[in-house]
Automatic annotation (TrEMBL):
Residues 453-525 form the ACT domain. It comes from the Bacteria. It comes from Aerophobetes bacterium. GO terms for biological process: L-serine biosynthetic process. It is an enzyme of class 1 (oxidoreductase). This is D-3-phosphoglycerate dehydrogenase. InterPro entries: ACT-like_dom_sf (IPR045865), ACT_dom (IPR002912), ASB_dom_sf (IPR029009), D-2-hydroxyacid_DH (IPR050857), D-isomer_2_OHA_DH_cat_dom (IPR006139), D-isomer_DH_CS (IPR029753), D-isomer_DH_CS1 (IPR029752), D-isomer_DH_NAD-bd (IPR006140). Belongs to the D-isomer specific 2-hydroxyacid dehydrogenase family. Pathway: Amino-acid biosynthesis; L-serine biosynthesis; L-serine from 3-phospho-D-glycerate: step 1/3.
Amino acid sequence: MEVLITETLAEEGVRWLRKAGLAVDIKVGLSSGELSSIISSYEAVIIRSATRITREIIDKASSLKVIGRAGVGVDNVDLEAATRRGIIVMNTPGGNAISAAEHTMAMILSLSRNIPQANNSFRSRKWERGRFVGTELYEKTLGIIGLGRVGSEVAKRVLAFGMKVVAYDPFISEEKLRGLKVKLTHLEDLLRCSDYISIHAPLKSETHHLIREQEFRMMKKGVRIINCARGGIIDEDALFRAIKEGRIQGAALDVYEREPPFDTALIELDSVIFTPHLGASTREAQTQVSIQIADQIIDALKGRGVRNAVNLPSFDLEMLEEISPWISLAEKMGSLLCQLLRSPIEKVNITYVGEMNQYNIGLITGSLLKGLLEPILEEKINHVNALAVAKERGIKLAEIKSDQIEDFANLITVELLTASGEVSLAGTLFSIKDPRIVRIDEYHVEVVPEGNIFICFNEDRPGAIAHITGILAEKGINIASMGVGRKKIGGKAITVLNLDTPVSSSLIEKIKASPIILEAKMVKI
């Protein structure tokens, strides 16, 4: 397996990859065209912030399985295109959190005490003590936008300075804040009460220009802004106007909408401090993220689990071992359902009962959709892109976790809603290596979901099973196991046979020639 590294990566991570038996190519500074021309040769690519993995590059990446970001932000990767192609995108969110938090603290202190400006003045042989009077952090309020790993580390540090901390993060619960003296609030309230505002949110469509003209007008006069997260969250033109008009005291920026940002008007302002995207640039962080992304790439390529994926539920080897029987069963159920379809799928309802509910069921759902869609589509379907492909085709999905135990303590039930009606299956595990289909539509059966399966709907009367098995015996087709089910005596029944060899179309027609046979179908799993 070959791995491409397109940017500088600490040697420790490179050695770790090679020690695991992976072939590593290091090609720094590739143009988009150059990357497109070689990407098909690699199973994994490791990038940092400078490399852009576009849809066009992904379309050429015929062998690519994993994109690894040595760092946090993945806005330089077309996630939709990667997911659509079934490529895992992963990052290293904790590897540089301390370095980024410490850089943020350096920016806050530099803003407060005018350290860069004083340094420049001193180098010009000036002694301007009165010009650079600073501001204490003690009892000031810091507003943190985004209370993830870095934001939380910043909060701990400024609390030690005696600051008050408020935070805006719609995805953080009050429980997460236990032990951290931080008050969650709305964005508008944070903007109005903060003396300093530090941004630690990811760049997404929802956060692009989150701080623009109207937000600056809500802020306290004299507020200071710090952004060591992602460029584009602050509208830089609006920031320039707010500082020029005296509403904002100053800003400290490590990230920009376009990098390098040498054409920005902010450069002319003495009250703005700049650093060239140095948040994660410490020896410790570089070593940590290089080893972390290398380790994650190795595990993903060798099937030992996926960690820190941004487009797939993360799982480790232990969890994978525990749920792999359910993953396998779900894929087989999807494959069987696909072969029972009579018309296009409109909606998939999946109900989970039992032990798998303690895990992230996304992997199981992805496997079921893979089995359902793969037989009818030409494109490659896997656990990563199955949900995206389903949505693209207008298939609605509902996942339900239930604790209502009926016939089985652990059960997966799938209902497909189609234009011609509903098709359903239920499956369980009799033991770790013994999966069973226990219901087809409304009929209770016991079927091993493996190999050649002959499914027949027939009238519930004497001679039906003998008719089927007699014809199979004439052709020397051996029956491995059999399951039958009915709703009431003398009504409609189902006969399901596991066979050593498949039944031909002509033989199926011969079986269906009897009036007691209502429907017959051969499926293969």
